[in-house]
Amino acid sequence: MELITICKTDKKLKKEISLPSSKSISNRVLIIRALSKRNFNIRNLSRSDDTKLMQSLLDKIEYCKNISEVVELNCENAGTVMRFLTAYLSNKPGKWSLTGTERMEQRPIGILVDVLRQIGANIIYVEKKGYPPILIEGSELYGEKIEIDASVSSQFITALLLIAPALPGGLEITLKNKISSLSYIEMTVKLMEYFGIKINHSGNTIAVKQQEYREADFIVEPDWTSASYWYEMAAFAEEVDLTITGLKKESLQGDSVLPEIFEQLGVKTVFLPEGIKLLKGNKPVSRFEFDFTNFPDLAQSVIVTCAGLNISGNFTGLKNLIIKETDRLNALSTELKIIGANAEIVQGSKFRVQRSEFDFFNNIKKLKSKIINTYGDHRMAMAFAPLALLSGSIQIKNPEVVSKSYPGFWEDLNKIGFENQLSTV
After folding, report:
1. 205 and 266 assigned to the same domain
2. Which one of 49, 50, 149, 297 is the catalytic residue?
3. Residue 98 near residue 73, CB atoms below 8 Å
4. Do 285 and 349 belong to one domain?
5. What pTM does this model have?
6. Which residue in 12, 126, 134, 388 could disulfide with 394, CB within 3.0 to 4.6 Å?
7. 49 among known catalytic residues
């Protein structure tokens, strides 16, 4: 097992960086291109593990000519890959076995499978009902009015929306219960519209008639979610003058809400023609509250920021964090206690950080001797790395996990003056 030690001898955050491309956008556009059957150009495609995996599996599917043999497709622990392909392959002739890691086999897919079966899909659970691995015998699906529980994962809704134009009669989807990650559904709708699809979105109902995706070259935006770790560093630093190129206020990504969030945590955002500039802003609030229902991927970086600043925080909208790459609520609770933070899970799906009245900042300097576990989760690694600005150094297990979304993260830290050293434990 590899261990990375991250050091920072000062608390200055300056220079300029470029973020990776959005894997959320990249994976949606790859599915759209496959459905359109037109090889349009996608520029700035994400180099993340998830997007490389999506592209390689779509290539494998495309070159498969024998539809009588079962084709095994390992989705590893990539949620978008598993869920998007489940819908895509249900409508594609052939026999498809979708497998994944041990963790993927614990991530539910039953809600999506149930709806796909309603419109003609032939899907069998290989082991545990409601969970991968699954066996799909693809055939032509038919469109109709359907309902789906939208409270668990927006990826289920996106998977259905993406294939809707290819179905006879299209789809009319009614979203039930509190919608989780609405911003990602809106991203999907905007991307489909870019590629010529007309969509009627009224209240909790989204209607898509049968139609064809048009061919159009596309440029993938830099990833706003990846910016959250730099905002976190800016909150911890004493001097900040950091330019992040490519990010725009008008974005397909809901996580572009970051400037509003971190303004309360002492970070000022200036929008420039070439991107954004982060500066020190007003003093952080003494108590912070936020509902992450629409922005779940920001939860770890914001919660760790509050803990590192030793301010109290109440965080809601975290229900689906327990079914991500790891149980992120338990992972956060466990690792925050290592830095002496008073953090706890509340009522099963909420989270609370309470200000410590003890000598918190002296305690946090002891992080040099502590090791942070990532639980195989890229966002755990990147959310805890900025604490090196407070402690001088921090050690993190399995640093390679960042390649899932931000392959160049450790190299970008080096560009800003961090020192990284790998070792084996």
Report:
1. no
2. 297
3. yes
4. yes
5. 0.94
6. 388
7. no
